[in-house]
Amino acid sequence: MSTITTGVRVGRSVRAHRQRQGISLRDLAARLEVSPATLSGIENGNTALSVDRLFHIADELDVSAPRLLEPGDVDDLPRPPATAKGLASWPDLPDSGAGNWRTFHDLPLDPALTGALIAFCQKGFHGASIRDIADCAGLSVAGLYHYHRSKQSMLPALLDLTMADLFWRLEAARDGDPDADERLHRTVECLALYHARRPRLAFLGASEMRSLAPSDRSRITRYRKDVQRMLDDDIRAALREDPDADRLVVTLGNSISTMCTSIAQWIHHDGSISPELIAVDYADAAVAMVTQRRQPATRSRKATR
Asked: Residue 239 and residue 218: Cα distance in Å, rounded?
């Protein structure tokens, strides 16, 4: 199959046309029958794009394929209303699709989103005022609105960026052809490491879903379910046709995901335990929880209540 290297500009062109039409990354990915992480890699210029897929994208965006490849006026296309200026308008994740999923660089947060993240974690979404956010960002209130139209628009922007960052890491961690146990280990290590390395974003996602507008809450919830589904699929594969698999996927899947998300509530970057060691310990524990079900002695256990 013929492929082309997308490059940042072509990826931006795809993103700009998508956003101009009000199509979410997830919705376009579903139409193309690819994962959101794959489409994010295309938009960031880090994922090779087949000619067939280029034409498929063009059809879905109602634009000619050559138009997507034109270098001329991408920067002149209307940008989405949620962010008027700043890096958040073009959230190019520095590692996305190409980097090591265990490596964490600074995310492309504009000053307003940086201030919002600090203020929301300190005071909660409803407790943080626009003045609080501006102070944390080192901006005037007027300067804050230069980046975002409202406080309400900042929360989904942060959570969308969180999910995009997590998605590509999970896809990279699970890539290749590891056996079922190793795949589960990588998935849990990735989840745990993310919550250890990005504790503020992880804490925000755990505590402020209720503060999202209904449409934003629905979208982020779908993303979270996709992450849970990845974990559940890996648990099911590692169970190796255990007769209790349907029940165990629910109980073990929720137990392991809760283990990982709780890290943001207790971790302290004081150097006592590295995030990498925490992640490996969690992954070891998760695999042990699942694989012990394959031991004959445990398979005969009966629930006492």
From this structure: 31
Residues in the chain: 305
φ/ψ region of 70 (left if φ > 0, alpha if ψ in -120 to 50, else beta) reads beta
Cα 162 from Cα 197, distance rounded (Å): 12
The DSSP-derived string for 17-40 is HHHHTT--HHHHHHHHTS-HHHHH
Instruction: Decide: pTM greater than 0.70.
Output: no
- Rounded CA gap, 203 and 26, in Å? 23
**Contact call for residues 209 and 221 (beta carbons, < 8 A):** yes
The angle at the Cα of 169, spanning 176 to 196, to the nearest 5 degrees, equals: 130
- Containing 50, the helix (H) or strand (E) segment is strand 49-50
Taking a C-beta distance cutoff of 8 angstroms, is the pair 161, 223 a contact? Answer: no
Contact indicator for 297, 229 with CB cutoff of 8 Å: no
Closest by CA to 263, choosing from 208, 190, 211, is: 190
Q: Per residue of the chain (305 residues), what is the pLDDT tens digit?
A: 444 444 556 787 888 888 777 788 888 888 888 888 788 878 877 676 777 787 788 888 877 776 776 544 433 433 333 332 222 333 445 555 456 899 998 888 899 999 999 999 999 999 999 999 999 999 999 999 888 889 999 999 999 999 989 988 998 999 887 899 999 999 999 999 999 999 999 999 999 999 999 999 999 999 999 999 999 999 999 998 788 889 999 999 999 999 999 999 888 766 688 999 999 999 999 999 999 987 554 444 444 44
Measured CA to CA, the distance from residue 222 to residue 255 in angstroms comes to 19
Q: How many C-beta neighbours within 10 Å does residue 257 have?
A: 18
DSSP alpha helix (H) spans, the chain = 7-20, 25-32, 36-43, 51-60, 65-69, 111-123, 130-137, 141-145, 151-173, 180-197, 199-207, 214-239, 245-261, 263-266, 275-291, 296-299
Q: Give 302's strand partners.
A: none
